[in-house]
Prior knowledge:
Strand content: 15-25%
Low-confidence stretches: none
Distance between the termini: 16 Å
Shape: globular
Helix content: 25-40%
Radius of gyration: 21 Å
Number of strands: 11
Bound molecules: pyridoxal-5'-phosphate
Amino acid sequence: MSHARTRDAAADDKVPPDSTALLTIDLDALIANYDRLRELAAPAECAAVVKADAYGLGVTEVAPALWRAGCKTFFVATLPEAEELRALLPEAVIYVFSGLLPGTADIYRKADLRPVLNSAEEIREWAAQCSRYGEALPCAVHIDSGMNRLGLTAADVEAVSNNRELWSALSLSLVMSHLACADDASHAKNAAQRDIFDSLRARLPETRASLANSAGILLGADFVYDLVRPGIALYGGHPQRRGPNPFQPVVHLIGRILQ
Ligand SMILES: *Cc1c(COP(=O)(O)O)cnc(C)c1O
């Protein structure tokens, strides 16, 4: 016996009558993924990347859930994202990848945000602003170890490395870099980037270090340093190209089958 129309009773139950589909975000799965990443990276601190509205899942729900689960440090891409996050999490440590755009220092200071400084010029500007405030405010420095997107080149590091006055004006709380090929665990570039990161950060004041995104955490203990910065794995994405996904799906979509 066949029917002209096949109804899916389960979907009909869950999808509101005036809708055709229902997308749900499973915050328990998000936290399970966070706990998994934290275990994998221990004893490093596990931060969370919540840029682009927490990868589209909704930062207003995602960030407080992570905070309640014990996440204390967050990364966003832009200053408006950081201001929105500050309103949600008054006590979190918040870093902004896009760094110190002209005229933004006062916003950073007022909302207690930390710029990720991407050039020698930005480091000089932050130091100058800190001197003006009379406060050595925290910041991160991003070293380009081979991603070729953002960060200090070897020449930039050279230009600022011995400038004591510069480094004493500010408070360097993190030195970081970003892996380009960590989704392929056998790629030679992973170890090469780690070596460049080590040799360049050795020329800067000693502080905490961070290299691994989600895929980098799966590369093992040599890549986790003091703090890890997962994004996609938190949200259930598979960070590597091969093998089963160790993380739980967070996004679920059910749709009605009309016919
Ligand atoms: C987006 C981003 C991350 C997170 O990367 P995932 O691959 O999503 O884990 C980490 N660090 C930087 C600099 C980023 O831009």
